[in-house]
Write a sequence for this structure.
């Protein structure tokens, strides 16, 4: 179960793995995610299902190495198994023929935006995608996004590729161009989603964001993933992960993502040390 | 033992057991159970009581007068033949005692530990009228532990295959009971469990120091030995729907035992600050994910200094005692009614007090205050007094105006109860629920509004007890058996 059948390095620190998980592959819809636990000692972390192939029974996960668990996941090789994969979780994206949909993905956010862009395209919408990263080397999934979009705009913060600037700059240009936008889907770092939502609010463009709060069970049992949307508390894992960007309290979300910073750092340092020790041991034997 | 005094005084307070009028000749007192020193145990996760020795168990068993009309049996939701098992212990026939228990209760080692005995079997024990009741729970625990430690687990005879398939949703006490019973009757049984481990609240909620996980796993192993299959990481409603279980997977009957796992919050300002947990999250991180052993286990939990736990049930006691063991300097239970109304078991309250947990009764938080970085800094609390009885018959707490004060804390654990998790029912509109979201099921059969679908435990009763969940499991298994056998397969 949950064997890794393919592994690709997409950019520095961003990896794609294809995992054999036939049931989820068959069931999942755009916008949904899984929660995995690598081994008996592992933490449960959520990752979006970027793609799936019901025929071969596989799901695609794309992740950025930011801490202990994602690094450890990145260190697994083809043939390794992930102990637990649970899903599909969360509500699927509401996909319908709406008209023109702009899909905005920032950084690793391109991975979760991809299945939505694909589904929107398949539903007959005109899909314009804006993807951005800090620099050219960090940009991921350009070709995949291009394949499911009528138009693709790329931005880099440092101007090393595509347009120089943020995704919001490109979005603003697009709006100014007079492109009638019926829906905006924005996924990426919280600051980016907040900026996009602030911008689209001015133009009254409906905006959907996908929130990445800290989770444990993913079934609505712990309440750890709670966010404030429109003044009410919601659980991201069961009520989301997608919410109306104009209603989300992003500042609270940002603070809540930092609850375990100290411990996360400790775990990471320990993991690096273990890895170095292992390498040293191996070299020592040789 | 002081624990016993608490039990007794509260029963007396409630006016249920009249006090002895004239003292008779000294009888054998209720035998205390040795336990870890409070100050030592407040810093470790090992089980608190050590259990009876063979000798103590036999002495305690001799206190039972073997009533002709044993009221204690009526007090037990699964009607264990209490005098018979106690008799066997008295005679030193421990295996036989365990056998008698197993006939009516598949999880005696668990019930002996967590049943609210003082409100059930022991409450009506005749010996308790003039003194302290026979320690039925402790004896139950003793016999079950003795069997587990000294004997190979004997798997009872299993009926020949019936060709019927049953699906059980949720591996909590209710689901495990149904699964075990149906497997014995020859059905092909599969449990679908949302989490990566079986046991439900027994594994993610009740802490190790109160119910060692090895005991839960031993009970689960037993159910597996009966031929029950368990599929983990399978959230019904997402992974498969009830409809698909019938139509695609070919199950003939389904039991829903998904528990009451939706944490309530207070809806007061500041509840989403960093440092505010639901008891469910706090306990799940510590128990299921083993955050108490961070960094050996990856899941983090806050390292708190001053903790306030809101609520007065077993869950609140578990959260408070866990916080202490995780290293907090000061842990306070904040409860809006008085000690008398506290729903937690007497033994838990007593243990918590012994370990140094502070009780602020008739106090209710009105807001949680944060610092500039979004972390809990303090909690504003208002004092309460008891007014007229409310619908539940308990006196309603009313705030005393102008009595608000601030309490310095860095962590708040909200433990004011759990509701029905709507995940499954939302996906299954045909399932009738009440206004709280609990599934409506027939008391005598556990049948729901959907044909072939049965439900029991917390999802029907609201947050209740382990033994009631098991009792429902038994009722459901009988009805499911009958239903499945009536089908042409
Ligand atoms: C619905 C959802 C979908 C996601 N999809 C993707 C994806 O497709 N690709 C991707 O790279 N990332 C995704 N994430 C984020 C991913 O879960 C975190 O990067 C990951 O948990 C980090 O774990 P770590 O141990 O490597 O790092 P840590 O050092 O533990 O944490 C780094 C940061 O990640 C966040 N985080 C930590 N633990 C958790 C947790 N248990 N649950 C959620 N967030 C946590 C915190 O903000 C933390 O500061 C998603 C998150 C959510 C909620
Ligand atoms: C902290 C705490 C302490 C307690 N202390 C005591 C005590 O001392 N004595 C006592 O008698 N009672 C106590 N209780 C109450 C007792 O634990 C419950 O009444 C009992 O566990 C209910 O059993 P259940 O089988 O109905 O549900 P649960 O034990 O809640 O089990 C339900 C199971 O179903 C799974 N599930 C949920 N949804 C799905 C789904 N959609 N698909 C698949 N699986 C699903 C859950 O993951 C869980 O494993 C306590 C409860 C808590 C939380
Ligand atoms: S199961 Fe509970 S109520 Fe029944 S005898 Fe045992 S302790 Fe008492
Ligand atoms: S009521 Fe008490 S004394 Fe009588 S049989 Fe039951 S346990 Fe024994
Ligand atoms: S992750 Fe526990 S409720 Fe959402």
């Amino acid at each position: 179960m949950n064997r890794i059948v393919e592994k690709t390095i997409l950019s520095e620190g961003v990896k794609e793995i294809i995992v054999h998980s036939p049931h989820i592959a068959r069931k999942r819809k755009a916008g949904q995610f899984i929660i995995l636990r690598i081994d008996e000692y592992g933490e449960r972390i959520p990752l979006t299902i970027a793609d799936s192939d019901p025929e071969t029974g596989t799901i695609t996960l794309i992740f950025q190495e930011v801490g202990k668990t994602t690094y450890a996941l990145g260190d697994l090789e083809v043939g390794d198994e992930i102990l637990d994969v649970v899903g599909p979780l969360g509500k699927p994206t509401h996909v319908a023929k709406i008209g023109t949909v702009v899909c905005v993905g920032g950084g690793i956010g391109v991975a979760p935006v991809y299945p939505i862009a694909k589904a929107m395209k398949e539903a007959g919408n005109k899909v314009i995608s804006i993807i951005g990263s800090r620099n050219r080397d960090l940009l991921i999934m350009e070709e995949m996004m291009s394949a499911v979009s009528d138009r693709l705009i790329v931005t880099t913060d440092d101007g090393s590729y595509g347009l120089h600037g943020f995704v919001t700059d490109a979005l603003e240009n697009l709006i100014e161009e007079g492109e009638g936008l019926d829906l905006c889907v924005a996924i990426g770092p919280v600051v980016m989603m907040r900026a996009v939502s602030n911008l689209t609010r001015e133009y009254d463009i409906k905006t959907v964001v996908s929130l990445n709060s800290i989770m444990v069970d993913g079934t609505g049992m712990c309440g750890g993933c709670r966010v404030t949307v429109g003044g009410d508390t919601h659980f991201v894992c069961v009520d989301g992960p997608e919410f109306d960007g104009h209603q989300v309290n992003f500042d609270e979300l940002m603070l809540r993502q930092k609850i375990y910073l100290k411990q996360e750092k400790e775990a990471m340092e320990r993991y690096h040390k273990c890895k170095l020790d292992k390498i040293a041991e191996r070299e020592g034997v040789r | 033992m002081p624990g016993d005094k608490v039990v007794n005084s509260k029963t007396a307070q409630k006016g249920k057991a009249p006090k002895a009028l004239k003292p008779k000749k000294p009888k054998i007192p209720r035998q205390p159970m040795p336990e870890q020193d409070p100050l030592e145990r407040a810093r470790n996760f090992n089980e608190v009581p050590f259990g009876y020795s063979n000798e103590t168990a036999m002495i305690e068993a001799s206190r039972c007068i073997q009533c002709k009309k044993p009221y204690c049996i009526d007090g037990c939701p699964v009607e264990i033949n209490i005098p018979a098992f106690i008799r066997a212990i008295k005679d030193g026939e421990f295996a036989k005692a365990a056998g008698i228990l197993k006939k009516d209760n598949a999880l005696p080692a668990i019930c002996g530990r967590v049943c609210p005995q003082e409100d059930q079997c022991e409450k009506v024990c005749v010996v308790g009228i003039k003194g302290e009741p026979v320690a039925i729970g402790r004896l139950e625990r003793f016999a079950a532990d003795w069997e587990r430690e000294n004997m190979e687990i004997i798997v009872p005879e299993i009926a020949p295959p019936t060709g019927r398939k049953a699906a059980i949703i949720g591996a909590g006490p209710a689901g495990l009971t149904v699964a075990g019973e149906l497997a014995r009757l020859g059905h092909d049984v599969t449990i679908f469990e949302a989490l990566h481990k079986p046991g439900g609240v027994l594994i993610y909620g009740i802490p190790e120091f109160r119910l060692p996980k090895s005991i839960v796993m031993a009970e689960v192993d037993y159910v597996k030995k009966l031929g029950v299959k368990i599929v983990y990481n399978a959230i019904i409603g997402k992974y498969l729907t009830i409809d698909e279980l019938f139509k695609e997977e070919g199950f003939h009957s389904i039991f829903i035992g998904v528990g009451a796992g939706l944490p309530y919050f207070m809806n007061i300002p500041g509840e989403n600050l960093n440092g505010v947990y639901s008891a469910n999250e706090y306990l799940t991180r510590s128990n299921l994910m083993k955050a108490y052993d961070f960094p050996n286990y990856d899941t983090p939990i806050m390292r708190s200094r001053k903790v306030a736990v809101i609520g007065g049930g077993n869950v609140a006691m578990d959260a408070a005692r866990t916080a202490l063991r995780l290293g907090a300097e000061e842990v306070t239970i904040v409860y809006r009614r008085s000690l008398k109304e506290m729903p937690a078991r007497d033994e838990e309250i007593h243990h918590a007090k012994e370990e140094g947990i502070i009780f602020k009764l008739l106090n209710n938080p009105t807001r949680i205050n944060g610092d500039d970085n979004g972390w809990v800094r303090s909690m504003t609390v208002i004092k309460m007094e008891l007014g007229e009885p409310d619908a539940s018959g308990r006196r309603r707490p009313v705030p005393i105006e102008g009595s608000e004060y601030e309490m310095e804390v860095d962590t708040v654990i909200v433990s004011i109860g759990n509701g029905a998790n709507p995940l499954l029912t939302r996906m299954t509109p045909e399932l009738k629920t009440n206004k709280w979201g609990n599934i409506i099921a027939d008391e005598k059969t556990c049948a729901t509004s959907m044909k072939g679908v049965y439900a029991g435990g917390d999802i029907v009763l609201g947050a209740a007890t382990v033994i009631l969940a098991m009792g429902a499991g038994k009722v459901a298994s009988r009805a499911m058996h009958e239903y499945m056998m009536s089908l042409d397969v």
